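Minutes, structural biology subgroup

Action item carried over from last meeting: produce the structure token record for Patatin family protein (Holdemanella hominis). EB confirmed the sequence was re-checked against the source entry. Recorded below for completeness.
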Amino acid sequence: MLEEKGLVLEGGGFRGMYTSGVIDVFMENHIDFNQVVGVSAGAAFGCNIKSKQIGRALRYNKRFCRDPRYSGLRSFIKTGDLYNKEFAYGVVPTILDPFDTKVFKENPLRFTVVCTDICTGKPVYHEIKNGDALDIEWIRASSSIPIVSKPVKLDEYELLDGGVSDSIPVDWMLERTKKTVVVLTRDHTYRKKPMKYINLIKKAFKEYPNLQHDLENRHIVYNETLDKIDKLERGGQIFVIRPSKPIACAMIEKDPSHLQEIYDIGRRDALNSLEELKKYL
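Output recorded by EB:
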């Protein structure tokens, strides 16, 4: 039986601050969902909707974006991960800006993260229920960008960024809910181009031909998904919130004011869409 309302959260690195602005407006206005699926930054920042922590993603990213313990070249050289496992996924969510695991566990909303199995090249959809250390590892796996992150080993899988295999899991959600809301982090004019240095990237993953195939064809699959989303939106089958203007953002964003700016665009776009969204739902 299909559940009533689902929410799909695209990734996009620090463009995920846009998503944070959108979901904070949802929480403030009691826009609730039965199912949420997040990819990469959509998982890392979007999970705060299950713990009902308005403003948390913006707060800790502004606080730590300049901290070398959080992310950067030093972490990459030392650990193989651009975003530091011990600090960004350990100290921050448990000590410095704690995740509300009690609310997370009690909230009936089902939150699923998407990762990529580097052996098969297929997406892995995993529901996180408790907001504990194991759930945070699944979020980290969903957000682990190829080349600048080591694969995360969980269960029988070796996992990387879910955006490689299913950047916008709208089909997954349509199979589960009657009403689907999609939050994108690219504006309507955007279409993805082939990856730069794809031959070097493929060489780095020479032992994983299925992952190579995903990376080489990602732009094709992504653009086809955007075309499908446009068609579904025109037909009234889904509701889409996307940036009202292009958002430029570095992989490692060190300017807190720019993070605030991206977040504010998300809030504004969500507020402007609020009445139409309520009618759709």
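Discussion: The chain has a mean pLDDT of 97.
Next step: EB to file the record with the rest of the batch.
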